[in-house]
Amino acid sequence: MNPIPAFGLGTFRLKDQVVMDSVRNGIELGYRAIDTAQIYGNEAEVGDAIAASGAGRSDIFLTTKIWTDNYSRSKLVPSLKESLKKLRVDEVDLTLIHWPAPDNGVSLEEFMSALADAKAQGLTKHIGISNFNIELTKQAIAVVGRENIATNQIELSPYLQNRKLVEFLREQGIHVTSYMTLAYGKVLKDAVIGEIAKRHHATPAQVALAWALQLGYAVIPSSTKRENLASNLLSQQLRLTEEDMAQIAALERNGREVSPEGLAPVWD
Questions:
Q1: Given a cut of 70, is residue 212 above it in pLDDT?
Q2: Is 263 inside any structural domain?
Q3: Does 161 fall in a domain?
Q4: Is 16 a domain residue?
């Protein structure tokens, strides 16, 4: 059974009071999955907001990601323990390797087996990867087994549909989590998405999120505005037609927004 909730709240680039408000509003509105990372510099605030929300620990699915500085066997588990302290929990639900970082001097075998150790020690219920291409996913599978990779969190939007990688992950039974589903807001201005939104009396953001959900991906959109957080949640009720889905499929343009040098792999 796939453990990843279909709809979550992202916290990338949100800091201090802004992230606390976003998480608090999100939980009040019904979000039950929160996605953060060591490099976001907001784990403590996310932890405070969850604690203040009054939500039970078992009600929240909490994800963090190990930063590249902490990939070595000697650093990964201690860094995750530090994250747990900041998040004010005994374990997270999911821990991901944030970027493959092929040139940072730590082998994939070392960081994947250290991540498996973290799971064995009860620091995280599930483990996974983020921003891995097909070849690196194969290597990760060789180290920990495909059944131990809960997801590959990848950039995915109507402008970057990543079909080869998605097809491979499906064959392996590895769930796809889509981040940047709105392509930094670019797809919200798209005429085709706008037309579909009009037909359904929906917003462009709801259409893009519903598209990803209908393809079976998990989504983790972020927002600082309560009304947008509420509106995004409604995408779960939106059913797009086959024609809508075909029109969005035709928007593919390899429109990648995120590919940091030294961290990103060679993309498929």
A1: yes
A2: no
A3: yes
A4: yes
Does 243 reside within a domain? no
Helix (H, G, I), strand (E, B) or coil at 56: coil
* Residue 40 a catalytic site member: yes
In whole angstroms, what is the distance from residue 52 CA to residue 249 CA? 41
Count of structural domains, the chain: 1
Which of the residues 31, 40, 159, 179 is marked catalytic?
40
- Which tokens hold the place of 136? 């690196």
Q: Is 267 helix (H, G, I), strand (E, B) or coil?
A: coil
- Give per-residue pLDDT as tens, 115-154: 999 999 999 999 999 999 999 999 999 999 999 999 999 9
Return the closest-CA partner of residue 158 out of 217, 201, 228, 100: 217
Burial 232-249, CB ≥16 within 10 A → b, else e? bbebeebebeeebeebbe
Q: Residue 3's pLDDT band (boundaries 50, 70, 90)?
A: confident
Question: E strands, the chain, where?
Answer: 9-10, 33-35, 61-66, 92-97, 124-130, 151-155, 175-179, 218-219
Q: What is the CATH number of the domain that holds 48?
A: 3.20.20.100
- Nearest alpha carbon to residue 113 among 79, 81, 74, 152: 74
Q: pTM of the prediction?
A: 0.97
The pLDDT score that the predictor gives to residue 8 is 98
CA distances from 95 to 124, 159, 206, 211, 248 (A): 6, 27, 27, 26, 31
